[in-house]
Design goal:
There is one protein chain. With 328 residues, the protein is α/β, with parallel strands linked by helices. It folds into two domains: 21-54 and 253-325, GTP-binding protein OBG, C-terminal domain (GMP Synthetase, Chain A, domain 3, 2-Layer Sandwich); 65-234, 3-Layer(aba) Sandwich (Rossmann fold), CATH 3.40.50. The chain has nine helices and twelve strands. It has helices at 75-82, 131-138, 158-172, 174-177, 194-206, 222-234, 273-279, 287-299, 302-308; strands spanning 2-3, 6-7, 65-68, 100-105, 111-116, 143-149, 181-186, 210-213, 260-264, 267-271, 316-319, 322-325. It has a six-stranded mixed sheet with strand order 4-5-3-6-7-8, sandwiched between helices. A four-stranded mixed sheet has the order 9-10-11-12. The longest helix has 15 residues, at 158-172. The two termini are 49 Å apart. The relative contact order is 0.12.
Amino acid sequence: MLLLGKVVADLSEPNQVELVLEGGRGGKGNSHFATSTRQAPRFSQDGEKGEEKELILELKLLADVGLLGFPNVGKSTFLSMVTDAKPKIANYHFTTIIPNLGVVKTKNGQDFVIADIPGIIEGASEGVGLGIQFLRHVERTRLLLHVIDVSGEEGRDPVEDFNTINAELKKYSEKLSTRKQIIVANKVDVMQDESLYKELEDLAKKENLEIFKISAATGEGVEKLINHVAEVLKTLPKEDLIEYDERIVYTLEDKKDEWEARVENGEFIVEGKAVERLMGRINIEDNESMYYLQKCLRNMGIEEKLKELGIQEGDSVKIADWELEWYD
């Protein structure tokens, strides 16, 4: 959750609860003010006002592995091959318009979650295409599989595709651009020009990245890749993917000294959170409630302070948002 551009809560743990808005305490009924001499008081205490803030709520998938790649490079086919997920698969761009999740179960018993996320295009970091909808989900992953079409069927340049997508990652998040990445050269079963793969392989060596040749359609090389991913994940500890600007903790404890009294242009002014909380519980149209207010002002030391400032009966005093006439 974001507040004025700051992260105030990251709900990424099971049963996690965060308090992001301070609610007002409830009031007290008239029975609370009953005494031996006033058995049926006619006033009650209103509840305090709660805080109001504008929050931005963002949904981000929780997955161990994210699939990077341009549209129609075979990410959905790969997901359907290694998990029980049933994403929509078709031979046109932007077949996938919402993220799909699947659980990979390896033969050695290690499971992990993989996310097939809508394809990215140039300008995605500025919102072009599915843009930010894609990138915000990638933020959650610990490992990226960069799926690249090396078949040459669509006239794509694998090296150019790699550089374009990584440039978008860097524009969106410097931290995301440094996340561990494995290049997955897909569609080798229909590869028309071996040099396309060779150029991508040379790039992988230059960038010190691992590269795997696979065919998501036939299953060639897929098991080897999945087993390797499982081993890599063992070396990547889970970490807090969100950096807090500050942690906000709310309590409902009263601070007795949280008020200020002063004279300004001949007017007596009392303000502060403690006074605001008090006035939020007062019904100024009820005499008994006003007697209760005067008692609270005395107990809080406000009455004594106002007298030190020179207040006289009949003077006007502004308490929080109310302007009242002072009397002893």
